[in-house]
Amino acid sequence: MPAERLLTDARYLPYLPLIRVAWADGILTEAEVDRIRSVAAVVHKPGIDDEPVLASWLDPDHPPDAWDFQALDRRLRQAARRLPRDERRGLAELGIALARAEQTEPTAPVRGGLRALEDALGVVGDEATRALLDELGVSEPAPAPAPEAPPFDAGDLARLLDGRYHEVRGRVRDLYATGALKLPGERDRDDLRAFTLAQARVLADQGIGALAYPEVMGASEDIGAFIAAFETLAHGDLSLMVKGGVQFGLFGGSLYFLGTERHHALLPDVAALNLPGCYAMTETGHGSNVRELGTTATWDDGGWDLHTPDRAAWKDYIGNAALHGRMAVVFAQLVIRGEGYGVHPLLVPIRDDHGQPLPGVTTQDCGPKMGLNGIDNGRLAFDHVRLPREALLDRYAQVDAEGVYHSAIASPTRRFFTMLGTLVAGRISVACAAVAAARVALATAIRYGAERRQFGPSGAPEQPILDYTAHQRALMPRLARAVALTFALRDLVDRYVNKNEESAREVEALAAALKAVATDFATDTIQACRQACGGAGYLTPMRFADLKADSDVFTTFEGDNTVLRQLAARAVLTAFRDSLGDNRVFGVVRLFGARAQATLAELDPLTPRRTARAHLRSPEFQGDTLQHRLDQLTWSAAGRLRSRMSAGMDGFDAINECQDHLLALSDAYAARHTWR
């Protein structure tokens, strides 16, 4: 039969690879047959002598059956196994080599015709050959290449990323490396809380807590060292990081920054965790709007009457309040002889030495949470709790024995925001910790991607999934942004450590803007990294579950991100107003007149327009573009607000109508700083 001759006659062996690939999808179209016949006719002028042999395999209406394919595959497999690897090239060359291995030399017209047939089929010869041999079980994939060593010293890169606090970060990393600090593993909530407290005592014993109060504790480093240690803890257990932040940062930091010497005397016990405490600002009814807190501290016969008037005024979500805290810095409305003086902090005992609530103090456990279950978040309420006059943290405001209020800061608004300045360090710390958690996720996903292999060229080793463009685009831009945010936050820490009265406002604005950007970035990045690891990323040992659950709250604690973006945008608008040189304005936006036009005329880096590749990629152009976006958003936001307020709209409503614009302005402000 003609079909049998194709498989047994060595003269037809050169055609077998092409015929096999032509039928690879089980369908041969009339157009493909016509191309093959026309090429074959040219080769075998004036026609094909043995056309029935080829025609039997080139009939679209009568495709080869399963037996024919098996026979064809056996014949190809038998011949291909005799070929050295270097002769397994394109389909035409493979066919020629197969014929030669059978002691048959194809004629020059046949060799040319085979190459023409390969082109007519429209296949990529080398790739099709690898696929064919792989399907036949003849291919021998080369071993996967060994990973290359990075072209830089990893230690040098670590020191660069660590910045000036490299030694402190190394101390914290060593605590994990030596086993002094451990990841908690699977534990029930009560055990996890006890474990986290024990780990916090390790931090205290190692002097990490004392870094938060350098002037009192005699530490050689500044407070930036504590922020660096706090951030590095985020590479491990986030519950421990938050526990340390509540104890040493918020509670102790309030005594340090808002108190005076009599309060500072408690700091050694705070740093040693002999005096566990909490920071009780947030209430059930008020979180971001601190001015409207409901808890009251009323002057009464030489002391204070601390009271929670209703359920909305309960202190809520307070770390250390459910179980471990013995004292709390409570923010309350100060009332003296019927006159309100705004929100002030007071130091309040809440439990005795045996852990029992003191008279007048009610505590509740917030119960299980989405994450951070090593933290005993709780609620506090006070029923006319009597406090001494000295309970007031009195660095910025004092009340004498006669009940007379004194403050060197005359403006109530300025005094209020000065006292809230303790939150700035917390916001910076949370931003740093969020980016640290994102770096952990990225390190895990990138390492996994470099090891995990899927698919690849036919007959070649499977490729690391990190080699795929889509996988790189999922991870590498986020890695670049993580590095950029790391350096931006290093700069912000330096600004915070060295701030003065003149620069404090900018530091607060940057802290708000970058905290919002960094925590949103962490939430997005951890999810992307989880997905990049497929099903493996869903397993607990990969840590994505804990990273997601524990870091998600970063977007809302230490300031809700939407509120912080508005705070940053207001600061940018205020600075813009001041740059116009008009100090008559009282408020965020009132006077943006013709003088601003001259200022903005100098801002456009796009005129004249230059489109050369080198220019568009230059740092100067990128910086000018980010600055231009910030300037345009600033001016346009100011104009929108001014037009509404000039038309008689209330300032609150005007800001609400332009809220999306203000959020974009804040992010542009953060992006410009990050680039710098």
Folded structure, characterized:
The protein is of the alpha+beta class and 676 residues long. The protein folds into five domains: 2-136, no CATH class; 155-241 and 248-271, Butyryl-Coa Dehydrogenase, subunit A, domain 1, CATH 1.10.540; 277-418, Butyryl-CoA Dehydrogenase, subunit A, domain 2 (Beta Barrel); 421-559, Butyryl-CoA Dehydrogenase, subunit A, domain 3 (Up-down Bundle); 590-676. Helices cover 52% and strands 9% of the residues. It has helices spanning 2-8, 16-22, 30-43, 51-55, 66-80, 91-101, 108-121, 125-136, 154-162, 166-177, 189-205, 214-217, 223-233, 238-258, 261-264, 267-271, 412-419, 422-451, 469-497, 504-532, 544-551, 561-579, 595-600, 613-616, 619-646, 651-657, 659-675, and strands at 277-280, 296-300, 303-307, 315-318, 327-336, 339-349, 361-365, 378-382, 385-388, 398-399, 405-406, 453-454, 463-464. Strands 1, 2, 3, 5, 6 and 9 form a six-stranded mixed β-sheet that branches. A hairpin with a 2-residue loop joins strand 2 (296-300) and strand 3 (303-307). Helix 11 (189-205) crosses helix 14 and helix 14 (238-258) packs antiparallel against helix 18 (422-451). The longest helix has 30 residues, at 422-451. The radius of gyration is 36 Å and the shape is elongated. It starts with a helix and ends with a helix. 40% of the residues are buried. Mean pLDDT is 84; it is low at 44-50 and 582-601.
